[in-house]
Amino acid sequence: MSAAGKGTLLVAWVAVLAALGWMIERNLVVGTDLRLFMPSPRTAQERLVLEEIGEGPASRMLLLAIHGADAQAAAGTSQALVAALRGSSEFRWVANGAGDLDAIPDRLLSYRYLLSPTLDEARFDATFLQAQLEERLHDLTSPAAGFLEQWLPRDPTFELPRLLESWQPGRQPQLLFDVWFDRAGGQALLVAETRAAGFDPQGQRDAANALRRAFEAVRTDPGLRLEASGPGAFSVLMQGRTQREAQRLGTVATIGMVLLLLVAYRSVPVLVLGLLPLASAGLAGLAAVSAVFGTVHGITLAFGFTLIGVAQDYPMHLFSHQHRGLDPRDNVRALWPTLATGVASTCVAYLAFLFSGVRGLAQLSVFTVAGLAVAGLTTRFLLPWLVPARGRDAAGSALLGRLWDRVAGLPRPLWLGAALGLLCVGVLWLSPRPLWEDDLGGLTPVPRALIERDSALRRELGAPDVRHLLVIQDRDAQRVLAKTAGIGPQLDALVAAGALAGFDHAARYLPTIERQERRRAALPDPPELRASLEAAMRATPFRPGVFAPFLDDVERARHLPALGPGDLAGTPLEARVGGLLLERDGHWTGLVTLTGLRDPAALERLAATVDGATLLDLKQASQDLVAHQRTRILWCLAGSAVLLVLVVGFALRDGARVRRVLAPMALTTLLVLGLLHAAGVSLNLFHLIALVLAAGLGLDYALFFERAADDPAEQRRTLHAVLVCTLSTLMVFALLALSSLPVLRAIGVTVAAGVVGNFVLALLLTRPPGRKP
Amino acid sequence: MRYSALVAAPLVASGELEHREDGALVRRVTSPYRETTILRGENVVLEREGSRPRSFSLDRAPELRGMLASFGALLTGDRTMLDRYFSTTTRGNDAGWRIELRPVDAALLKRLALVQVDGAQDRARCFTLTEPDGDASVMALGVADRAALPASLAREALDRWCNGETER
Description:
The complex is a heterodimer of chains A (about 775) and B (about 170). With about 775 residues, chain A is an alpha+beta fold. Chain A is built from 33 helices and 13 strands. Chain B is α+β, with helices and mostly antiparallel strands and about 170 residues long. Chain B has two domains: about 15-60; about 60-170, no CATH class. In chain B, the strands form two sheets. Chain B has a six-stranded antiparallel β-sheet with strand order 1-11-10-9-8-7. In chain B, strands 2-3-4-5-6 form a five-stranded antiparallel β-sheet, with no helix packed on it. The longest helix of chain B has 15 residues, at about 60-75. Chain B is globular. Chain B starts with a strand and ends in a 6-residue tail after the last helix.
């Protein structure tokens, strides 16, 4: 091809990539819901668990502490923060303990007689009213008179303060300056519920930013600090940390890679050309996922680009085999059967994840298969037109020649390989320790200090447990409310017995319609109430007629329709009830959040007595889900292993050759598994993916070594290619292995060990035995 | 004595005031019912026999803050403190004097119109807080029982008593 033709092809290729990139940029939606990487639910119970893990009120709750200056400044800022976040698009509600009478809209005021439990036991008769009026006289004489007095004519039974008090958590922190403070009195405490689910890192990050902005705007003292704790805050923190670390390591790896390629090929054009198949792979993968799934998950992106790093190897084989006098197109034609076998078998291995039942992994599968296929095809059909026909011949390197001879001279006790393999199987089989880690939280561990801080705040605030949750389901809201209210006394008894410290549920705020109607029916009619009130007032110095607003309110309440969950919009109850009573696909779910649970078994017994009630242990349940998921993935992998053998068998058509190609990869996988286990590492999903990646690389190495069996020049060129591939991969993953974050370390250690094992074993085992070079 | 527009006759309660060592002011009502109010720093805790303790901050009861400031300033003779919150007028003589304190702060003035302290020689006798709507509370100091007070507790009668007039 002429220089002009080459130029045109290069420009066209880059233009297509740019256009594809532009289209993807415009259409790509990056999802961040981590549940995409959880298995799809198979039973109603599993669906419930998945919903609650991300959407339960406890997972949305942020515990806030304001400190750093004197208590009064902290309290002022606490009040201002609540006001600033009221009606924000990121938070459902924010509470700081201030029972603000003025916050109740007028519409709801008359409802106090239907919502408050007073009328369940008492009647508004002369005796009751007289006792209440006497209490009010004492209030009038007390130092609180100034602000209570204005409510007296309207609410002589103090229904509203009683109602507000009943809405406060059972075990409140102390109040200083009207807001919650910790026991020491140094930190103002608040609780906020985000609109975003706990498993939506983007939504949680928006909430964290909104919180920070609001705090900085209202802070009354520059010394004040705001601390936020809870599942959402932790996920934001850990995601940021993982991203920063991956980015830092990635930058170092990129620089190293560029240097390595320059040393290996001593040519800048080659370096640039080598990136084209990789870039094509990434863009093609994105386009495929975007077309199939509509969105692509952030983890798919990060992980996918790691996995298609294999594509970087494809052009290297071409470059290393290139030498003067060889048309690159002939070169690639000769390499293609081997390269195609490698690409096809790796694709088959990744296809396993398509059937894993996990949407995130299915995306990953589509991404890598599409990416690798495109990288292979562009290396085969486009790249050779652009590669300079000259170039240093790797076969001319005396160093590589000596190295090859040295390796060829090594004794190759094949029985040792078999023995090692058996040893690893033995270690894995007989070890008493569990092989797998099911606690996904362990992958991005939150620093211990923060965990301790979180439990301290949780204790001070009486905030609900993140782990346990009582769920009550039924076909309509009223039945759910009735059942929830029904177990109230048993829950109170459990609190009294010390089995748990407190609880919260929707029926505390919103009684059933039936109960509200019963209370309404208990309200006396105007003549009767007036008579009782007059009788009660006779013994007190209250002036006649001062309680006219009270009589009006009661009369209004007698004609109010009972409140249902749909009538709360715009009231402070909307957010509270909305988080605890939800409608999902035609049925209603009521949640009972638990605080300081010490005896889950007692709760379980209670749940067993109510039809439709379940005590969820979210941690246990999610671990069970992960275990289920893993079994399924392992079966998929087993299936793809069989397919892979078939692909290699079809390509090589010789039992002995197939054995020699597959042996290094199989033995390496066993060795890495055995070593990880012996080193005390519990395996997780990320180890599995990393093992598949390493196996794919190993297969390529073995295929190329096996191909070069007899020709000394080809042997050196192959050794050069595989060395460059191995070193570049090793560098990237060894860097990841140095990470302080277990998730990155898991991938790094596994792939790095796998690459070394695969290289060494491929070099030793793929040559036919008995033949000398 | 509490005078409120809601009631026809003043409400009377008696008890004692204590300045605790930790700086808290304790107002203890012993008759006709039992109630304790602890004012400490910016926080007020109200405990009454037979009901849950209530707590609120001085921000919600600015008149209480004014009372505490004037009370403390008068007890310790802190003139600067007094001037910070009030404009002061004094009249009378040793046999009977009256100090009138008017809040200077507009926000406080909305809740507290006047603090009036009556006394004779070196002893204060009455401490009167008047709210803008005319409601008022009067604290008679050093009164052991009801018999020491005038027969009529009508506002004007008590006012005259405070100012040193002796009936009978």
